[in-house]
Design goal:
heterodimer; A: 164 residues; alpha+beta; Alpha-D-Glucose-1,6-Bisphosphate, Chain A, domain 4; eight-stranded antiparallel sheet; 8 strands; B: alpha+beta; Arc Repressor Mutant, subunit A; 2 domains; 4 strands; 64% helix
């Protein structure tokens, strides 16, 4: 039997695609069934942002979330658990309402600059997120140890190494 | 550069979600083995091991060949390289986030319908 099961019901969820476009850039694309202003609002309002940025499957929680969403404004996200809080912070370097958000990731010197664009297409919004790292080495340092992937992927990595 | 073939990968990741199956792959990475060998090694019934090998085979991670009465297993044609693995992990993270974001967006849309647009 083929592993590609064509008979599976088509999910209603829009698909998320990821493409590595250069040795220091990765692009995530997703369509939302709403106008750009609504999607933008969910990204820039802390109370809303908190509800989706760390899905339960990640096994982490957002202890606090401060976002001063305007050009030059700062943000600080603190990931749990409370016994081992991890802060993520940076600055918004461009904020164009309903269209474009650009921020830095300043917790390390290999942090990426993240650009999110919201492009309205009829009743939907095409969201494109770019992460541009300062160098190839920085990219590898961040993604070689993708903490967010969790244990499964760490185990998989080990397995792949043993399989050589 | 790298685009995900997500359905193919879903089968692989499902196959890899089990400790015994990961062990089998590791074992086959060293040398080919029969189902009987593997069943003994993992202290399992032949039927149980056949099921595990079947899942790995469907995912393309293992191939088997029957010679006489012995079915020999070896690593399959599908090798997940590390690059593909982390990209798929990254994609799953964003997909999970965006599925949650969908819910928020839906709620905001409903609110707007009821209360009308602000400003």
């Amino acid at each position: 039997m083929d592993a590609r099961s064509e008979n599976e019901p088509t999910p209603i969820k829009n698909s998320t695609t990821v493409e590595q476009t250069s040795e220091r850039e990765i692009v995530v694309t997703r369509t939302f069934n709403a106008p750009a202003r609504i999607v933008f609002q969910a990204w820039t309002t802390p109370e809303l942002f908190k509800q989706w940025w760390l899905p339960k499957s990640m096994g982490m929680s957002l202890l606090s979330c401060e976002m001063d969403v305007r050009t030059g404004g700062k943000y600080v996200l603190v990931f749990g658990p409370a016994s081992n809080p991890t802060p993520f912070y940076g600055r918004y370097i461009e904020v164009t309402p309903h269209a474009r958000l650009v921020w830095t990731n300043d917790e390390s010197d290999h942090g990426a600059v993240t650009t999110v664009t919201f492009e309205e297409q009829g009743d939907t919004t095409l969201l494109v997120l770019h992460e541009l790292y300062p160098s190839k080495e920085a990219f590898e340092a961040e993604h070689g140890m993708e903490e967010a992937m969790g244990e499964t992927f760490a185990q998989l990595d080990e397995l792949l190494i043993t399989l050589g | 550069m790298v685009q995900c073939e997500s359905t193919r990968l879903d089968a692989s990741f499902a196959a890899l979600s089990d400790a015994t199956r990961r062990g089998v792959l590791e074992q086959l990475g060293r040398k080919d083995a029969s189902i009987t060998d593997l069943a003994e090694k993992f202290r399992m019934t032949l039927t149980g091991m056949k099921k595990h090998v079947g899942v790995l085979e469907q995912a393309g991670l293992v191939t088997t060949e029957k010679v006489g009465r012995v079915r020999t297993c070896k690593l399959g044609p599908l090798r997940l390289d590390q690059e593909t693995a982390w990209i798929e992990g990254y994609r799953q993270l964003w997909a999970a986030r965006f599925d949650e974001l969908d819910k928020i967006v839906e709620r905001l849309k409903q609110k707007e319908k009821v209360h009308g647009r602000k400003k």
